[in-house]
Design a protein that fits this description.
Protein-Tyrosine Phosphatase, Chain A; UDP-N-acetylmuramoyl-L-alanine:D-glutamate ligase; globular; ATP-binding; alpha/beta; 15 helices; ATP binding; about 450 residues; dihydrofolate synthase activity; about 20% strand; tetrahydrofolylpolyglutamate synthase activity; disordered C terminus; EC 6.3.2.17; eight-stranded mixed beta sheet
Length: about 450
């Protein structure tokens, strides 16, 4: 064993997190150099590559569960994580083991050091290293039949964009990460369209003509078939209550519409499920994937994705949602309008990152003004987190009066007192916690483990 090898898992993790100082550095030259040294293990895997501003994680979860129900072995790569870093790399729903992750970190570290010394590319970033580790784990250790592969940021220059998928998926395009991806929907769409590869079919849940024009243009250049929601496939929500919804799905690949039940709420999940279903239709029709209708039904019904309108306490009612940009908050607002029982007093606990459109997010909550009792803004332990005063000002600029707003110096103390105070409260008090996935991850760890995860 080399003197520099990590012996403990935590040592390796500290090294990996230490690479965060290199930030996000778009470009594929470091990835390609390392993969070349490893003799391109990614070429031995079948990928479904998923990009999009919102809904990537949920779409990946739907795809993974449906394929697993049909007895396909599935690798899944997603970000960020909620509680444990290893959630990002899963095989058949189970996280990569600490032992496998440690072995691969030691192996990759050698090449990270070499890349820094031997090339002009500099050091790999944390996300690039975890992407390489995921490829090695899937190609060498577990060898799944298919990998559901989520982009980190954008598409064209994202470190996941070193694979040739069998299907590309672009859930939607929104105004997020504008400092990296561009200041208009069209510019951001061009970055997302970078995952479209020659001859590879593309499925999108995007409906806006100006965005579709960009995706169509790219698909035409690469001679890829583009399947669009509202045109080649669609889904309508038929009924919804807290904890479930029914939808009807139709596609050009099916003679009759089909009915499905989801345990995830929101019209945006109806669209995400439709995108996942169309991707399955493409796999069945063009790649001979075998999924029976009852396996698809079970897969959709059993899909859970933490931090998306997730109830972590039924009494008092506490709901977590990872909405972290303007479109996400608008989707959350629409869902709450539909789901809140009459007479509910709604309280929001909000924390967000300083580089997000905070005033726009505040404005997106406006349709809930009649139901919101109080907006509690707070900060949390994360490098890019906005402080509570910044959030307070953003909400004021976004049209919220002082009487709605209050700053919370310590969100944990706030939650403790809320849980104790409201334990015996009637069901008309709801606390919804939102604003950042990173914040939601920390809040989630505050609550007892949910039943679904008890076995992990």
């Amino acid at each position: 064993m080399s003197a520099e090898e990590f012996v403990e898992y935590e040592e390796g993790l500290d090294w990996l997190h230490g690479l965060l100082r290199f930030g996000a550095r778009p470009g594929l030259e470091r990835m390609n150099w390392v993969l070349e040294e490893f003799n391109h293990p990614e070429r031995r895997l079948a990928f479904i590559h998923v990009a999009g501003t919102n809904g990537k994680g949920s779409t990946c979860a739907f795809l993974t569960q449906m394929l697993m129900e049909a007895n396909y072995s599935v690798g899944t790569f997603t970000s960020p994580y909620m509680v444990d870093f290893r959630e990002r790399i899963r095989y058949n729903g189970s996280m990569i083991s600490q032992e496998d992750l440690l072995t691969l970190m030691n192996e990759v570290k050698v090449l990270v050091d070499r890349c820094e010394k031997e090339t002009s590319f500099g050091s790999l970033t944390e996300f690039e290293v975890i992407t390489i580790i995921a490829i090695l784990y899937f190609a060498r250790v577990v060898r799944p039949a298919v990998v559901v592969w989520e982009t980190g940021l954008g598409g064209r220059l994202d470190s996941t964009n070193v694979v040739s998928p069998i299907v590309s998926v672009i859930t939607n395009v929104g105004m997020d990460h504008t400092q990296v991806l561009g200041n208009s929907l069209e510019e951001i769409a061009r970055e997302k369209a970078g995952i479209i590869k020659p001859g590879v079919p593309v499925v999108t849940g995007e409906r806006r003509p100006e965005v579709l024009a960009v995706l169509q243009d790219k698909a035409k250049q690469t001679r890829s078939t583009l399947y669009q929601i509202g045109n080649h496939f669609d889904a309508q929500q038929v009924a919804e209550q807290l904890g479930e919804q029914q939808l009807r799905y139709k596609s050009i690949h099916r003679r009759e519409p089909s009915s499905y039940r989801l345990t995830m709420n929101g019209m945006h999940q109806t669209d995400n499920a439709a995108v996942a279903l169309m991707t399955i239709d493409v796999l069945r029709n063009y790649f001979s994937y075998l999924l029976e209708e009852e396996e698809i039904v079970r897969g959709l019904q059993q899909t859970r994705w933490p931090g998306r309108l997730e109830i972590v306490s039924p009494r008092p009612m506490v709901v977590l949602d990872g909405a972290h940009n303007q479109e996400g908050i608008a989707a959350l607002t629409g869902s709450l309008k539909q789901l809140l029982p009459a007479g509910t007093r709604l309280h929001l606990l909000f924390a967000g990152l300083g580089d997000k459109p905070l005033t726009g997010m505040a404005k997106a909550l406006d349709p809930l003004k009649d139901q919101i009792e109080a907006l509690h803004v707070t900060s949390f332990d994360f490098p890019r987190a906005a402080d509570a005063q910044t959030l307070y000002e953003a909400f004021r600029t976004g049209g919220w009066e002082d009487e709605y707003l209050d700053t919370v110096p310590d969100w944990r103390a706030f939650l403790l007192s809320w849980m104790q105070e409201k334990q015996s409260a009637k069901a008309d008090d709801w606390l919804v916690i939102c604003g950042s996935l990173y914040f939601i991850a920390q809040v989630r760890a505050f609550f007892p483990t949910t039943v679904e995860e008890a076995g992990e």
